[in-house]
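Quick one, tokens below:
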């Protein structure tokens, strides 16, 4: 058995990237030569997922345009012996089916709404869910997601969420994981507590926007029960699910989570990615040293 559907949340306004996000979706802001969202699609494909839904806001066209073939551009590149610049996109077109779903205006703000928008796409299947701002740096795309899928079936869990440890002084930014001591189910969680101060957070493990979820999660996303910020949180649904089901976490281990939701962290993601590229590492390292003098 395996997971063959993924939902990627990309319906935000990208206010922290204005004014550039006025022209195109923030998920198209590049990490090196590829937009952030392309890495997410490649991550899903790397884990064997080929049916991918991208949830966009009403009227948003730039993400769909990016992932659609452009015959005039291909003609130009062929004529100028540069067609290899589209190889990564051609690989996506060859291996995956992309579906674009507009998130209805009536749904509240929050990470639970894209899943509800994709409810018909999900159908009766289990699925992977991605936050569009969260970037996973790994040597092989999809290796973290593959571990999560394996654990999902190994323990017959209802959900697996990826986690990474952060310094305790930063825990207030994220959702902190509260664990249950269960010898039969390692890293079993009981709840996710959002944005608590360090002296109240149950751990320094935070959820990082990668999930494998049973179809039953859909029944736990309650549009009538919003958070204190009046948002519909996917993590609230996971907490509710964990009350009577097995929900486990998977550490990033050999992968690295980097959020790209604001310009500073997006810049850090670019630098971290470039330092992993053997064609860029030396020049960039030398340049960074000149800045620190």
């Amino acid at each position: 058995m395996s997971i063959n559907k993924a939902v990627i949340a990309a319906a935000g306004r990208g206010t922290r990237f204005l004014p550039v996000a006025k022209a195109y979706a923030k998920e198209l802001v590049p990490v090196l030569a590829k937009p952030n969202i392309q890495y997410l699609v490649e991550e899903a494909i790397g884990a064997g997922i080929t049916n991918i839904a991208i949830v966009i806001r009403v009227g948003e066209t730039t993400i769909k345009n990016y992932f659609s073939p452009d015959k005039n551009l291909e003609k130009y590149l062929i004529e100028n012996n540069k067609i290899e610049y589209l190889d990564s996109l051609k690989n996506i077109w060859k291996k995956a089916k992309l579906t674009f779903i507009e998130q209805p205006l009536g749904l509240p703000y929050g990470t639970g709404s894209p899943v509800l928008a994709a409810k018909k796409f999900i159908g009766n299947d289990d699925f992977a869910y991605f936050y569009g701002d969260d970037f996973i740096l790994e040597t092989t795309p999809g290796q973290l997601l593959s571990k999560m899928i394996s654990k999902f079936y190994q323990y017959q869990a209802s959900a697996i969420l990826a986690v990474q440890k952060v310094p305790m002084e930063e825990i207030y930014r994220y959702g902190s994981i509260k664990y249950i001591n269960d010898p039969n189910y390692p890293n079993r969680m009981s709840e996710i507590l959002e944005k608590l101060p360090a002296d109240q957070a149950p751990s320094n493990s935070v959820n990082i926007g990668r999930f494998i979820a049973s179809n039953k999660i859909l029944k736990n996303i309650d549009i009538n029960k919003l958070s204190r910020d009046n948002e519909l949180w996917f993590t609230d649904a996971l907490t509710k699910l964990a009350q009577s089901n097995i929900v486990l976490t998977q550490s990033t281990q050999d992968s690295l989570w980097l959020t790209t939701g604001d310009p500073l962290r997006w810049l850090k993601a670019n630098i971290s990615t470039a330092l992993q590229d053997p064609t860029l590492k030396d020049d960039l390292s030398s340049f960074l040293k000149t800045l620190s003098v």
